[in-house]
Amino acid sequence: MKKYETLLLFSPDLSSEERKEIVEQLTNVVKEYSGEVTAVDEWGMKELAYPVKKSTRGYYIRLEYGSPGTAVHEIERVIRISESVLKFISVKVEETFESTQEA
Amino acid sequence: MAFKFTPRKKFCRFCADKELPLDYKRPDILQDFVTERGKIIARRITGTCAKHQRRLTREIKKSRQMALMYYTAVHSTQVRKKTI
After folding, report:
1. Domain of residue A44, residue span
2. Global pTM?
């Protein structure tokens, strides 16, 4: 288990429900791989440095989770299916991850 | 009297301040290390140490990927024109 984060850039004409749906879908994927989402960080609507698919603004959401590496593959596959995610990046944050739920 | 020009000693900002995050999510800091056209500034000019310069370029490139920083200034002016 390692700690990862994925930064997602959503299309600006997406409603908050649709965004939530995708985020939920991704948290389910993490859970399927016996991982755990530790943080969902919404940066909000931001001006982009350059136009992406002709839109000049975008909504950023950062997901932080601990999971095995295979989950990252699955998450990226799910992201690629939805066309409303303009850009995404997955980065390993820490080499080790210990679940906070177990006690 | 001969006046000799002695340039100010450069130092690595990331070594001097351990708290300063070197992260693709902080384009505000990374912006200091690129020109106004978006090119990464050489280590011999900024004074960043080799280790941090390597990480810096990686983080800048990640930041560009996520449209947090621009690749070239031409595109960024297009954005500005549209939003005005």
Report:
1. 2-94
2. 0.83
